[in-house]
Amino acid sequence: MTLDHIVEAAFVPISAGLSCWAFREAWTDLRLHTRGQWIEAEVVAVREDADGDGDPRFYPEVAFTPPDNDEIRVESKVGRLYPIDRSKRIRVRYDPAKPRRARLESYGKPGPFFALLTGVGMAFLAAGLFRDIVT
């Protein structure tokens, strides 16, 4: 076994794991897009953090009350370079089955197609590396 095979062998579980993560993200996004509902939410807090370069990132936390449910608070997983006005109301798409699964309008991620494409690419990479190691 050569050094190339050892390096490739290390990347097989990494690419397979990334593939599984991407497929899970695609499934979650697809479920949110197909059965999600829009609701108005109030910005209740804004958390400030820094990205890898030290630039500020602002993550709004919103509160909304779905029909027949208690108040739900959700923080955006995507930050912005500038803070949002706390008096502003923002639209949120949430999953009625799991209301904590929500996305703030204009704070979205690339979407299910991108995650699915990433998952397929990583699966092909894992299969190709595995085939190269075995043969």
What does this structure look like?
With 135 residues, the protein is of the alpha+beta class. The protein has helices at 3-35, 112-134, and strands at residues 37-50, 56-64, 72-75, 89-95, 98-104. It has a 5-stranded antiparallel β-sheet with strand order 3-2-1-4-5, with helices on one face. It is elongated.
Number of strands: 5
The ordered H/E elements are HEEEEEH
> What is the global morphology?
elongated
Write out the strand line-up for the largest beta sheet, numbering strands in chain order: 3-2-1-4-5
Query: What fraction strand?
Result: 25-35%
Biggest sheet, open or closed, and with what strands and sense? Answer: 5 strands, antiparallel
Report how far apart the termini are.
Answer: 11 Å
Distinct helical segment count: 2
List the helices and strands and how they pair.
Blueprint lengths: L2 H33 L1 E14 L5 E9 L7 E4 L13 E7 L2 E7 L7 H23 L1
Antiparallel strand pairs: 1-2, 1-4, 2-3, 4-5
Helix pairs in contact: 1-2
